[in-house]
Amino acid sequence: MHEPTLHHVEEIFKRFQRPMLDVNRQQAMVPANCEVLHNAVGTAPGMWFSDQGTVFVSMPGVPFEMKRLMTDHVLPRLRTQFHLAPIEHVVVMTAGIGESFLAEKIADWEDALPANIKLAYLPSFGAVRLRLTGTADGQPDLRGRMLALLPALRERIGEYIFAEEETTLEAAIGKLLLAQGLTVGTAESCTGGLVAHRLTSVPGSSEYFRGSVVAYHNDIKQEELGVKAETLAQFGAVSEATVREMAEGARRRLGVDVAVATSGIAGPGGATATKKVGTVCLAYADATQTISREYVLDRGRALNVEYAAQSLLTMLRQQLAAM
C-alpha cells in the first residue's frame, strides 16, 4: 500500500462527497519494486520500473491522465536518463486531398529527401498532416535545412496546404479572415450548426464571426434566408440552386463579407429517386461570386455531417487564400 497515493485518493472522494469503496483503495496498491509517479488529475498512479538499464512505465488508461503524467513525470525523467541525438520536427497541414493522392504528387520530392530526414503521413479526419523528422547529422542548423525543403513542397501541393505548423483548419481560416479584415457567417441545414461551432471554437473568433442561421426546415430557408419557393419546388432543398441562395441570403441577413451554406441528406432516411443518402450540397458566397459543389458521402449519418462540415471549411479556406 502506497500511503501518499491512498491519501490522494481519499482526498478526491472527500472533495466530491462520495463514499470510498475497497476497490478504490486498491488503486493505491503498487508493486514493491516500482517508483510511484503521482497522478495529479486522477486516482491511479503511474509506475516507473528500471531493470538493468531498461525502463518500463505503467500508465493509467484515461487519456488526459496519461498525457498529464507524460508531461509532468515521464518525459522529463527520460530526457535525464537517456541522451539521444537531437531531432527536429517540421509539420505541414493539408486538407482537400487524400493521403494516396498526396503521396503520388510529392513522390519525387520525398525520394530526394536527405538520409537523415524522414517523412510521415499522419491522416486525421478530413486532413493529412505531413511531419518531417530530422536527426542531427553533425551539420549546423538542422531545422533551417528542413525548412529549406518546403518551397519545393509548396510548388507541388500549395493549394492543399493550410498551415506550416500544428494547428486546425478553423484556426487557419481565422488567421486569413483577420489578415483580410473580413467577417463570416453560416447558413446550415444538414450540419445543424457544426460549421459555426468549429469556427467559434477558435479563441478570438468574435473578431470575424458574426452569426449563423440553422435553417433545418424549408420555411426557415425561405423566411430567414430568402430562398425562393420556386427554387425549392423545382430543385428541392438538397440542391446546388438552394444552397447558393442560402449562402447569398446569409450574407445579406447576417451582414457579413463571406458566407457559407450546407444542405444535405445525412441519413439514414430521406433518400429520393434522384438523391441518395449522403448527398450534400455546399456553397460559398462573397461580394463578387457564389460557388457551389455537390458530393455524395454516405459514411453514416454522423460521419456525413462531419465530412460536410470539413469539406465546407476546406472550400472556405481555399477561397479566402485565393483572394
Automatic annotation (TrEMBL):
UniProt xrefs under InterPro entries: CinA, CinA-like_C, CinA_C, CinA_KH, Competence-induced_CinA, MoaB/Mog-like_dom_sf
The record's section on Gene3D superfamilies has: 3.30.70.2860, CinA-like, MoaB/Mog-like domain
Domain of life of the organism encoding this protein: Bacteria
Limits of the CinA C-terminal domain: 167-319
Which regions form coiled coils? none
One Pfam entry name: CinA
Family that this chain belongs to: Belongs to the CinA family.
Per UniProt, residues of the CinA KH domain are 91-163
* Annotated protein name in UniProt: CinA-like protein
